C-alpha cells in the first residue's frame, strides 16, 4: 500500500514579490491554514518606526524600510522572531528579502537555525495593479500626497534590486514557485496549498 502525506520539517516559507502583490495577506492566510507563525516584516517595521527612534527613517515617517540597513532588518527583526519560534517545523516570512544583502543575511540566519528546506513563493501581480494597491494603501493611511510617477519610480527601483535577490536564491539552489494572485483569495490559497503539497509530499510504502 502506498501512502502519500505532506511532511513539513524545518521548512521556511518565504513570500516574495512586488510591493502591493499581496505577500503579507497571503502569508497570513497560509499561517492560519497550517497553524504556523508568520512574520510580516513591513508591518513590523511600520510599527517600530512609529514607536522607536532607532528604527525611524531619515524623514521620520513610518515608511522607513528603505532607510534601514539590511543587517539591522535581519538581526533586529527577523532573527529574534525566529528564535522566539525555535523548534517550529514551519515558519512563514513576508516582505524580506528585498535586495542582495538581505537575501544573503536571511539565508545565513535560516541555515544557522537548521531550516534545511527553504521554499520561496513568488507572488505575481501586474505592475499597474501593484502600484494601484500601493496608492490606495497610502491614501488609507493618510499618506496619499505622492503622485503616480513617484510610485512608478519606486517600483522600478524595487524590480532592479529584486533581480539580485533571485540571483542569490538561484546560486544557493533555493526552490522558487510562481503564484498568480488573481481571482478570489480562497482560490489562490488552494493553489498555494497544492504547491506546498507537491514540494513536500512523501511517499511511504
Q: Specify Rg, calculated over alpha carbons.
A: 17 Å
Helix content: 40-55%
For the termini, the CA-CA separation is: 6 Å
The total number of structural domains is 1
The 3D shape can be described as globular
Structural class: alpha/beta
Number of helices: 7
List the SSEs and their pairings.
Layout: E1 3-6, E2 11-16, H1 23-34, E3 38-40, H2 41-51, H3 70-84, E4 90-94, H4 100-112, E5 117-124, H5 127-140, H6 148-171, E6 175-180, H7 185-200, E7 201-204
Parallel strand pairs: 2-4, 2-5, 3-4, 5-6
Antiparallel strand pairs: 1-7
Task: Explain the overall architecture.
The chain has one domain (3-204): 3-Layer(aba) Sandwich (Rossmann fold), CATH 3.40.50.300. Helices cover 51% and strands 18% of the residues. The protein is built from seven helices and seven strands; from the N terminus they run ββαβααβαβααβαβ. The chain has helices spanning 23-34, 41-51, 70-84, 100-112, 127-140, 148-171, 185-200, and strands at 3-6, 11-16, 38-40, 90-94, 117-124, 175-180, 201-204. Helix 4 (100-112) packs across helix 6 (148-171). The termini are close together. 27% of the residues are buried.
Features:
205 residues; alpha/beta; Rossmann fold; 5-stranded parallel sheet; 7 strands
Quick gist of this model?
This protein has seven helices and seven strands. It has about 200 residues and is α/β, with parallel strands linked by helices. A five-stranded parallel β-sheet has the order 3-4-2-5-6, sandwiched between helices. Strands 1-7 form a two-stranded antiparallel sheet.
